[in-house]
Structures are given as C-alpha cells and as structure tokens.
C-alpha cells in the first residue's frame, strides 16, 4: 500500500507537469528542433492545456477580471515586446497572436499567405463572404460594395433609414426610461431587415433578433457541441435562421415565376441575380449564407456603436455640445426632418465622433487568419496551418498608439492616426465592405439625437461586459430621455 501510494504521489507531479506543457510539447517543441540552426524561431509564449489551451486565461481576463487588455499586457511583461507576436492555443487551434500595428498590417496585406478563417465558420456559412476565397470572394465582394457603397445606393439608404430613427427617438421620449442596448438593436435591426430582406417590424423580426443574439454568442466560443454550451446553442439558432431565410427565398422565387420579371428591391434580390462570367448564379445556400453573414456584420456592429455613442455623449457633455452646435447649423438650413448624404459629408466634427465611438467600442476585438504556408517575419516563424489572431482591440487601447486611449476625445482625429494603429474594419482585400454603411448609420443617428434630445445615465460607472461584444452590464440604462 505504501509503495502504491508513493508511486501515485510521485506520478501526480509528472502528470501535472505534462498537462501544463502538453500543447507546447506537442506543437512547439518539434518546430523548435526543426528551426534550430536556421536563425529563426517561434514567437515566445505559452500554449496551455490539451484542448483548452489558454481559453481559461482568456476568459479570466475577459469575463472575471474584466480587464481584457491585460491578457496581452501579461504577455508583454513576461516575454517582452519583440515584434508583437506570441504563440498560444486558443479557440481550438495552435495560434500566433499579433498585437502590434506592423505585424497586423503585414498579415492583413498578405492575403495569399493568410486567408480569413474564423474558428466557428459554420455559424456564418461555408459559402459566405467571410469564408470564400479567390474568384468567389472577388465576385461577392464586388456585388456588395456596389449594392451598398455606390453614391446612389448610399443616397437611397440615407432616405430609407431615417424615418425609423426619428420614430424610435420619439418613442424613447415617451418612455423616458429605457435600456439603450435593447432599443438600439431594435431600430438597427428593423433598418437592416428592410434593407437586406425587405422585412417589416413585427413578431418575426423580434424572433430573429433573439436568434441572432444566440448565434453571436457562439462565434468566439470554444467549439464544444453539446447541450448547455454557447456553441451548441448558436448552432441551433443558426438552423432556425436558415429556415426563416429559406422561406423568404422561396417566396421571392415564386413571385418571380408568377410575374416573369426580376426586381432588385433588397440585398437578397440582388444576390439571387448576380452571375459569374459563365452566367452561373449563386445557389440557394450561397444566398442564405451571405444574407445571414451580412446581417450579423451590419446589425450588431452598428447597434452596439450607437449604444456606446449615447453612453459617451452623456459622460462627455462638452463633446455633445460641440456635436449639437454643428448639427443644429445643418438643421436650420433644412426644410424637412431629414438630411442628405451630402449633408453628412459636411458634418466634420460628427464624423470625428463616429470614428472615436468606433475606436472606443472595439466591437470586433479580434480577427482570425490561417497561415497557408510557413511564413517568416523579422526572424520569427509563423507555422503553416496555424491560426493568426489579429488582436485589433489592443491596437486601439495601447497608449503607444493613442494618447490617453481610454478618454473619449473626437479631437484626436484632427490628425491621422499612427500608420496601422486604427484597424476597426481591417485593411487590404478583406476590409469590411460595409464600413461606409455602418459609419453612415451612426452619423445619421447622432444627427437626430443631438438636435432634439437630452438624457441621463442611470449608472455612469457601470461595469463592462466584454463578451461577445463590449457593453455596460446595465445595457446603458438611461432616464429622463426627452426633447429639449
């Protein structure tokens, strides 16, 4: 018995040591031997436990401590700055974290070596714009840019989204007390639903809102597919959304067959009509995958940014005053309630507020790439088939890139940001095609908000939730929302 007990007690430390270093032993050590004598090496770091990797540490900083930037700061303190790269194991894959402007820019602009690869891409769809590459990506991206970024398209969108914004603000004034996270999502989703699929407000949109919320919860979750996990719930939400969009797709196809003509009233209509050089159109699954991914990209980002704009304007009344002065000057020159795309381009300070809101919100904290081949960068190797996690959030919160980064200061945009330090929408061939649309909707919201309303935060010092998207725990609860 004593022999057996001593054997167990002696083995447990060895087992613990092996589990602690398992991923480094499995992934890093063989590569270190291979690179020895070549003058290159793996980036420093730690790869964590089997399967989990550093997810426990990631969740500790993001969900428990609520100091997400310290996840990177801890690595800088332990391993030094180097070139802003650290090896890890996150979201089920061996990975390289990239958190400095130069390395992020290098990866973004090397599309052939680093393809876009989200960890749970099945939630967006394997044929969506974020998943395809080469000619398929070029074709889809070109269509989306033409559909939402051309001057005539932006002019039409400007006219379409404002009535719902104005109606929403008027209804908020009647309530007086509300949670901006919920209200901003509602009005943004109604506009996106109309623009993309011609959906009108009602029970269906409310159901879809809840399903998209569940889907987003699994995008950056560990891919454990069993009941009770965020990823499993997201898959169930994805299936239900897929069914809803397929019903709408069949309605459009039936209408076309009955009328014998094609109409391009929304983004889904357009996706159904685009053809490649051989005259081939998208399959039903391709249309559904892309509409779903476009809604995710356009809806949550704009809604969360609008929520943060209202939050920061309440905390920085000097910014609100300058915003109000500029927009009132435009308003006095208008006869109707709405402004034009040309008016928006003249709102210089407003557009600075938009950029500062997006920087502070950090809606897309990270982006994912996959190394298609072994790549060397300034003496370090990025192994083939490893993920590269572009830590965009850290670019915008690092004091080396932005002075006093936690201060909401639109005037910082009086001069350009340090090259490569502002990448909220990415850069290169994979720059988010909806970035202009998102900026436009936020600017329009700021205009109507600033010229007619005042409000107060219930809890200006509320703690922040950082997953899946950053927001105050109270959802930005406001009181005394009223006209002035």
List keywords for this structure.
484 residues, alpha+beta, 5-stranded mixed beta sheet, 17 helices, 55% helix, globular
Description:
- It is a single chain.
- This protein is of the alpha+beta class.
- The chain contains 17 helices and twelve strands.
- The protein has a five-stranded mixed β-sheet, with helices on one face.
- Strand 6 and strand 7 form a beta hairpin.
- Helix 11 packs antiparallel against helix 12 and helix 15 packs across helix 17.
- The longest helix has 32 residues.
- It is globular and about 85 Å long.
- The N and C termini lie far apart (82 Å).
- The model has no long low-confidence stretch (mean pLDDT 90).
Order of helices and strands: HHHHEEHEHHEHHHHHHHHEEEEHHEEEE
User: Which structural class matches the secondary elements?
Assistant: alpha+beta
Radius of gyration from the CA trace?
24 Å
| Mean pLDDT level | 90
The biggest beta sheet reads: 5 strands, mixed
Strand content: 5-15%
The termini sit apart by: 82 Å
Shape call: globular
- Order of adjacent strands in the largest pleated sheet: 1-2-8-5-3
Give helix % range. Answer: 40-55%
> What kind of assembly state do the chains in view correspond to?
single chain
Strand elements, count = 12
Unreliable residue runs: none
């Amino acid at each position: 018995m004593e022999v057996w007990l001593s054997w167990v007690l002696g083995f447990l430390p060895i087992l613990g040591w092996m589990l602690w270093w398992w991923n480094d032993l499995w992934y890093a050590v063989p590569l270190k031997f291979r690179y020895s004598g070549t003058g290159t090496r793996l980036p420093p770091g730690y790869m964590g436990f089997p399967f989990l990797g550093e997810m426990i540490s990631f969740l500790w900083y993001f969900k428990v401590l609520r100091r997400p930037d310290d996840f990177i700061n801890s690595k800088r303190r332990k391993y030094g700055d180097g070139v802003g790269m650290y090896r890890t194991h996150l979201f089920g894959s061996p990975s390289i974290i990239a958190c400095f402007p130069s390395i992020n820019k290098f990866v973004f602009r090397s599309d052939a070596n680093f393809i876009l690869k989200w960890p749970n891409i099945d939630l967006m769809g394997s044929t969506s714009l974020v998943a395809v590459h080469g000619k398929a990506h070029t074709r889809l991206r070109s269509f989306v840019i033409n559909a939402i970024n051309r001057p005539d398209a932006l002019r039409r969108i400007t006219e379409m989204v404002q009535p719902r914004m104005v109606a929403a603000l008027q209804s908020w004034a009647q309530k007086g007390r509300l949670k901006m996270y919920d209200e901003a999502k509602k009005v943004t989703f109604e506009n996106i639903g109309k623009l993309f699929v011609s959906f009108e407000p009602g029970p269906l949109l409310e159901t879809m809102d809840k399903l998209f919320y569940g889907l987003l919860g699994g995008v950056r979750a560990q891919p454990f597919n069993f009941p009770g996990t965020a990823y499993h719930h997201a898959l169930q939400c994805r299936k239900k959304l897929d069914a809803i969009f397929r019903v709408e797709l069949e309605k459009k196809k039936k209408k076309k067959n009955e009328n014998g003509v094609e109409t391009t009233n929304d983004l889904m209509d357009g996706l159904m009509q685009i053809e490649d050089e051989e005259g081939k159109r998208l399959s039903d699954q391709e249309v559904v995958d892309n509409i779903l991914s476009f809604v995710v990209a356009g809806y949550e980002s704009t809604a969360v940014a609008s929520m943060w704009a209202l939050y920061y304007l309440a905390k920085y009344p000097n910014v609100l005053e300058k915003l109000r002065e500029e927009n009132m000057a435009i308003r006095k020159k208008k006869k109707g309630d709405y402004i034009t795309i040309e008016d928006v381009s003249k709102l210089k300070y407003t557009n600075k507020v938009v950029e500062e809101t997006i920087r502070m919100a950090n809606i897309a904290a990270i982006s994912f790439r996959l190394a298609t081949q072994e790549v060397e960068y300034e003496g370090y190797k990025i192994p083939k088939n490893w993920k590269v996690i572009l830590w965009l959030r850290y670019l915008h919160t690092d004091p080396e890139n932005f002075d006093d980064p936690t201060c909401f200061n639109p005037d910082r945009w009086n001069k350009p940001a340090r090259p490569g330090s502002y990448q909220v929408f990415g850069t290169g061939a994979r720059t988010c095609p909806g970035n202009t649309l998102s900026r436009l909707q936020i600017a329009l919201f700021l205009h109507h908000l600033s010229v007619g309303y005042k409000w107060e935060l219930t809890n200006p010092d509320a703690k922040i939730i950082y997953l899946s998207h950053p927001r105050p725990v109270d959802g930005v609860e406001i009181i005394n929302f009223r006209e002035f």
